[in-house]
Amino acid sequence: MNMLPALLVTAPALxxxxxxxxxxxxxxxxxxxxxxxxxxxxxxxxxxxxxxxxFEDCLLPNSEFDIFLEDCISLH
Length: 76
Fold this sequence. Notes:
The structure is a single chain. Helix content is 68%, strand content 11%. By secondary structure, the chain is mostly helical. It has one domain. A two-stranded antiparallel sheet has the order 1-2. Helix 1 (4-23) runs antiparallel to helix 2. It is elongated.
């Protein structure tokens, strides 16, 4: 599951909401955007971890990772 496109869209919008909330002194908007940014960070960390786990599975015996295809090549 690739969450990167969703993060690329939501993170700048949340930062913009945070800036507007801090400038207009709307604490509810600032808090809501900070909660959203924290959630986006958790999604990013989980995405990187899942990608690492997939790459680690490719390092098992009889498999090779092809960087151009971004996939494992099984050597039987």
